[in-house]
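Slide 14.
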Amino acid sequence: MARNQSLLSGSVYERLREEILSGVLRPNEPLVENEIGERLMVSRTPVREGLQRLAAEELIVPRRQGWAVRECRPEDAICFMEVRICLEGFAASLAASRAEAIDIAELETIHQQHLMTLPENIASRVSTNRNFHLAIIRIARNVELAKAIRSATRYQFNHLVARDASEEVMERGNRDHQAILDAIKARNAAAAEDMMRKHIMRTSREVLMIPGAYVPPYS
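Slide 15: predicted structure.
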């Protein structure tokens, strides 16, 4: 019974976390236990436990009656993006050193799926973009690094960003992914890290819409 309860609370946590990161649940949107339980068809206990885990990650904040999705201030997002630049850059470096043929094939498949996705298919654009980054993190084969990246990945390319991204922004993102993939295929760890860092830095600026918010020394 306890194991089933733990599985349910974990499922609720993952579902809500994904909805927050993807932009389905908007900043300051209230989270009511009863409503969530009805929507996910679970009792209040796993919902409460899932919400507590989200609160521990600071993805939600307490309100007078329950919880609400935390609003991302520009300065908060910049801090997390700076961490992502460092961690995902290193992950790309490790991936270039450790990738096997099957890993390269997986990355190429995901990249092609992303390129073939129609601009209006926002959900697919978001998922294929995320899958590309997650695949590189897996290929790095460092569990602790993956945990750190997950913790830092709170504000990212999501449905709201994809909806408003221009064709030029999408094309630049595609070129970045291709360059990262090429560096990993060439086993060029330094180039893979450099391209990933620049990719996240540039897209962060576009996402945050803050001119000159952060200019690392390698740009």
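Speaker note: DSSP finds ten helices and three strands in the chain.
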